[in-house]
TrEMBL record:
<dbReference type="Pfam" id="PF01841">
    <property type="entry name" value="Transglut_core"/>
</dbReference>
<dbReference type="InterPro" id="IPR002931">
    <property type="entry name" value="Transglutaminase-like"/>
</dbReference>
<dbReference type="InterPro" id="IPR038765">
    <property type="entry name" value="Papain-like_cys_pep_sf"/>
</dbReference>
<protein>
    <submittedName>
        <fullName>Transglutaminase-like superfamily protein</fullName>
    </submittedName>
</protein>
<feature type="domain" description="Transglutaminase-like">
    <location>
        <begin position="141"/>
        <end position="201"/>
    </location>
</feature>
Length: 257
């Protein structure tokens, strides 16, 4: 994985950078300003480096490598159930009742319901690069009928939570994604464990690597100001695998690394 982006700090202050791949074998994060940083770790493996950045332009680079493994599914805890069945900023599951297909509600098995949600969102929404606004929640996306990966994930999470299925948002590196960028998917609880789903079907889930996990996109930004102000000047993201990319038709349970 390789990431590079540039920022212009207009008001000095701390900024949190969260681009670290989970369980990386080797990694290096550098900022063109050579001051110190502080590592902050959140739940579910999310990490952020906090830099106190002075005014001016800065370049951030990140490189990591990790061997692909066959991970064991993570158990869903009671705390997970308490957090990831609630409405959140971009996933207003308490206001979506009129937009949930009745045939999905009638299904009795959580696994079948999640699969039906993924199929429904894949067919219901058009993936349009550059569509949507940063303020759009899942209902806005459903009414618009189009979005990008974060919007697809928000809609799926919202429908899952409406059905009392714990669901959480995950930022990932996704080899095979085109155009290449950070990618957003979601995990849902099936038979007491977390499995990854992606209604965009733009990249195989088997080679995705976790960056950050949270209730929705508000918890998982790769760059956030913590008192300062900055302009984002652009980025490049590159993720690949040495082996051939697997075929993923969207069916079956996959564990996210």
């Amino acid at each position: 994985m390789d990431v590079e982006f540039a920022i212009r700090v207009t008001k000095p202050g701390p900024a949190a950078i969260s681009v670290s791949a989970a369980h990386a074998d080797t990694e290096e994060l550098t900022v063109s300003w050579h001051g110190g940083s502080e590592l902050v770790e959140f739940a579910h493996g999310t990490r952020a480096e906090v830099f106190a950045l002075p005014a001016g332009e800065h370049r951030v680079t990140y490189h990591a490598e990790r061997a692909l493994t066959d991970p064991e599914p993570e158990p869903v805890t009671l705390a997970d159930v308490a957090v990831f069945t609630r409405p959140s900023r971009y996933c207003p599951s308490d206001r979506v009742a009129g937009l949930v297909p009745p045939e999905i509600v009638k299904l009795k098995n959580a696994g079948k319901q999640v699969e039906a949600i993924v199929r429904h969102v894949h067919s219901r929404l058009s993936y349009v690069v550059g569509s949507g606004r940063a303020t759009d929640d899942a209902i806005d996306t459903l009414l618009a009928g189009e979005g990008v990966c974060r919007d697809f994930a928000h809609v799926c999470i919202t429908l899952c939570r409406f059905l009392d299925i714990p669901a959480r948002y995950v930022g990932v590196y996704a080899p095979g994604l085109a155009p290449m960028d950070f990618h957003a998917v979601f995990e849902a609880a099936v038979d007491g464990h977390w499995y990854v789903f992606d209604a965009t079907r733009l990249a195989p889930r088997q080679t995705m690597l976790r960056i950050s996990t949270g209730r929705d996109a508000a918890d998982t930004a790769f760059l956030a100001t913590l008192g300062g102000e900055l302009d984002f000047l652009g980025s490049t993201v590159f993720a690949t695998t040495d082996a051939a990319l697997p075929v993923d038709d969207g069916s079956g349970l996959v564990v996210l690394g």
